[in-house]
Amino acid sequence: LYVQGDLAPGAAVAPTLDQSRYLTQVMRLKAGDELLVFNGRDGEWRVSVAEVLKKGVILRAEEQMRPQTYGPDLELIVAVVKKARVETIVEKAAELGAKRVRLALTHRTNADRLRLDRLDAIAEEAAEQTGRLDVPVVDDPVKLDALLDGWEDGRRLMFCDETGGAPAVSALTAAGDGKWAILIGPEGGFSPEEGERLRSLPFTTAVSLGPRILRADTAAIAAMTLWQAAVGD
Ligand code: SAM
């Protein structure tokens, strides 16, 4: 169960209506059952074993634990596409272990207005459902150029290029684990100038996801799955 705020030992936690429905109707928990409560964001999080009560959930005092560092470090950068597809991409990124989803504004980006609070809620729900103990951060849309200008040292960028690139798995296994980002373009693809810049950067590898042109959400899921298979955990 994802909660915001501190997990003070012995504190009572009031699940939201959706969470209560999920606990009782989907997970069929009843009073006395145990569950994990976490408040993970940005790597700072605690996990507590809690007990379901008739009303709400109470944290057990004795089991406060700070889990080990959590999985390999993947960021998904996706050009803003139609809202429904962005929502799917955020949900799948949470399931497939991305730590962060960054929305990029590119030359051919779709102008759909996105609601970040809704994307956050989708990320939280997917994190709970998938059993991970942190919630991926979803950043506000930023220009791709600004993202590349401020690129974090030591993070490799797997640039998914439908016009051709190395087979994704060999690129991933060749570079090995460590910090990765996956970049997916918009419905209209990257512009020639964007492609040129991306191919010129030292930290990028242009990869192909196969001979067919995939929709952005399919490409994001395929790329994250290949990353997971090659270097994830
Ligand atoms: N330019 C494409 C076209 O001509 O229809 C459309 C781009 S595609 C819908 C959206 C994004 O998914 C691409 O920019 C790329 O990042 C990724 N993508 C789709 N198919 C791919 C493939 N076979 N290999 C690598 N990336 C792919």
Automatic annotation (TrEMBL):
Which terms under GO biological process does the entry name? rRNA base methylation
Q: Which Pfam families match?
A: Methyltrans_RNA, PUA_4
Domain of life of the organism in this record? Answer: Bacteria
SUPFAM superfamilies tied to this protein: alpha/beta knot, PUA domain-like
Q: Which GO terms describe its molecular function?
A: rRNA (uridine-N3-)-methyltransferase activity
Where in the numbering of this chain does the Ribosomal RNA small subunit methyltransferase E PUA-like domain appear?
Answer: 18-60
Q: Identify the residues that the record assigns to the Ribosomal RNA small subunit methyltransferase E methyltransferase domain, covering every copy.
A: 73-228
**Single GO cellular component annotation?**
cytoplasm
User: What UniProt keywords apply to this chain's record, in alphabetical order?
Assistant: Cytoplasm, Methyltransferase, rRNA processing, S-adenosyl-L-methionine, Transferase
Location relative to the cell? Cytoplasm
Q: What EC identifiers does the entry list?
A: 2.1.1.193
* The UniProt record lists the keyword Transferase: yes
Q: Which reaction does it catalyse?
A: uridine(1498) in 16S rRNA + S-adenosyl-L-methionine = N(3)-methyluridine(1498) in 16S rRNA + S-adenosyl-L-homocysteine + H(+)
CDD domains in the cross-refs? RsmE-like
Gene3D superfamilies recorded: 3.40.1280.10, Hypothetical PUA domain-like, domain 1
Q: What does the protein in this record do?
A: Specifically methylates the N3 position of the uracil ring of uridine 1498 (m3U1498) in 16S rRNA. Acts on the fully assembled 30S ribosomal subunit.
PANTHER family the UniProt entry points to: 16S RRNA (URACIL(1498)-N(3))-METHYLTRANSFERASE, RIBOSOMAL RNA SMALL SUBUNIT METHYLTRANSFERASE E
Q: Which family does it belong to?
A: Belongs to the RNA methyltransferase RsmE family.
Q: What is this protein called?
A: Ribosomal RNA small subunit methyltransferase E
